[in-house]
Every structure is written in structure tokens, then in C-alpha cells.
Amino acid sequence: MTRTTAEFAPQPGTVLALRADLALVLAPNPSAMTGPGTNTYLLGRDRLVVIDPGPAIPAHLDALLQAIGGRAVDHILVSHSHLDHSALAPALAAATGAGICAFGGPTAGRSAVMAALAARGLTGGGEGIDPDFAPDRTLADGDILQGDWGRITAIHTPGHIGNHLCFAWGDALFSGDHVMGWASSLVSPPDGDLTDFMASCDKLQDVPATCFYPGHGAPVPDPQARLAWLIGHRLQREAQILAALAAGPATASAVTALVYKDLSPLLTKAAERNVLAHLIDLHGKGIVTATPAIGEGAVFQRIGGVLPPVTGI
Questions:
Q1: What are phi and psi of 97, to 5 degrees?
Q2: Alpha-carbon separation of residue 258 from 31, 33, 270, 274, 281 (angstroms)
Q3: Parallel/antiparallel/unpaired status of strands 99-102 and 72-77
Q4: What are the b/e assignments for 264-292, b being 16+ CB within 10 Å?
Q5: pLDDT tens digits along 107-156
């Protein structure tokens, strides 16, 4: 039986059984961006698949090896190449002999718009990209892994980062950082792309899963409701940004100050990156202009005076 959100209280370094053939080991890396820490999942009984090894913390490696207990590990799956998910993969692979599977390296799956912005000098906001991440095997959208632990289907869900994968397993989906129950996902250009993020949310609405297991925080027991909330949240944020621009041209930083009230200083940078992602998306839709050119320091201005309709909230 799947544990409910109320029963979800893992302690770092200990094994928490979630359902038959599925357990979790929480990494000791709590923060404002990771919640209680990174969830590392172990699928299977006699043979295992590990999903998201987590950060390169020796104590977490020790805890995982103890949980594995000498059982064979067939694959190490990495949802995306942020350090809090991927950095421990090489050490775990060396200790178990398992291959690392992911969509690709840090820039794999990056949209053409974000690739162009990166080429012009736009950099990330310090989200912890794993610059040397290189999987042993790349998984494309729809690729299937099969073993004693069941059938796992890779689903490419760019948005949080271009190389983000979710993994479908029976009636469950491992949603990485794309869908979490305790927070909306950070989308920070040029690694993150809001246009892609929204398309990936639409894509996941067609996945018949009854529970999402995220990269951070408790299981999501009503995935469709959560996806609807995420889509509505982004559309509402878009409307707020356009309303802020109604007062006149502004930078992403200035728009952030108008849109986000009483924001913790710890989250200010993340909020600015999310606003920038929205502004780039709006620029691509032809709703705003950017002077002198689209980027972090650009001045954005609405085109016309009519707000697009806000739906899905």
C-alpha cells in the first residue's frame, strides 16, 4: 500500500518502505530549494533500480549501500543533471557496477531559444548544474527498461531543465523536480524553459498514474489535480506579470518586486529567474518586447493594452 502524505516522515539515512518493491532513502541535504532533502528511490526486491542517487555526500552513499545490502543494481536512473540529483551517480556506479541512465548531459534537450540565449552569454542563476554529468546510456522519450523490478518507461519532460526525465512504473510516476507537492518547480533560463515546462505538464496529464513520487517531498496522491494546479499557477503568474508591465516597461528584477510580496530573501533570486522565464515565454508569443535584446538585464514592455485571458486556474 502506498504511504499517505501524512505518513511520510523519512529520516536521512534510513530506509522508508513506500509500497511493495519500492523504498526511499532521504539524502541529508535539506534547504529552501530541496525541502527535506533529495529522495533516492530503490525499486525491486532481489534486483534493484536506483532513481536519483542524490548529492555527493559520503554518508548518503553509505546509507544507500547499506540499503542495497549487496543486491544487484541493474540501472541507476537520473531524472536530471542538478547536483542534488546526479552528483552521487558516479560513486554509486563504481560501488555497484550499475550503468547510469539519463536523457543526456547538462545541455541535452535545451530548446533552440535557450541555446541562442546561452550563446549570447545568458547564464543560470546558480541552481547547481552538474557540469561533468555524462550518462553511460542515454534514454530517449518512450524508451523502456524491463527487468525483475518491472517495466519502466522514460518520459522526456523538459522545462525545469532540458534533460529532465520522468519515469513511469506501473501505476506510478517518478516526477523528479517537474511535479512536487510542496512547491512549484523552479524554471531558470537558459537551463529551464517555461514554454517547454507547460508543454510537459500537458504531456503528463495523459499519463495514467495514480501517484507521483517526486524528487523532493511527499508522494503526490492526486497527480491530475496537482498538474491542474501547476498549470493554473503559471497562468495566474503570467497575468500578474503582464499586469505589472501595464504600469510601464520594467526589468525582470523590477517585475519580481511588484509580483512577489513578502518574499523570503532566500527565495528572491529563484523568483527573479521564474519571472525571467515567463518574460522569455511571453516574448516568444509576441506579447512583450525586450530592449536592447532579450536577456536578464533587458527592459520588457507589453505590446498593446489587452491582457490575454487567464484560464485553467
A1: 80, 5
A2: 25, 22, 15, 14, 19
A3: parallel
A4: eeeeebbbbbbbbbbbbbbbeeebbebee
A5: 999 999 999 999 999 998 878 999 999 999 999 999 999 999 999 999 99
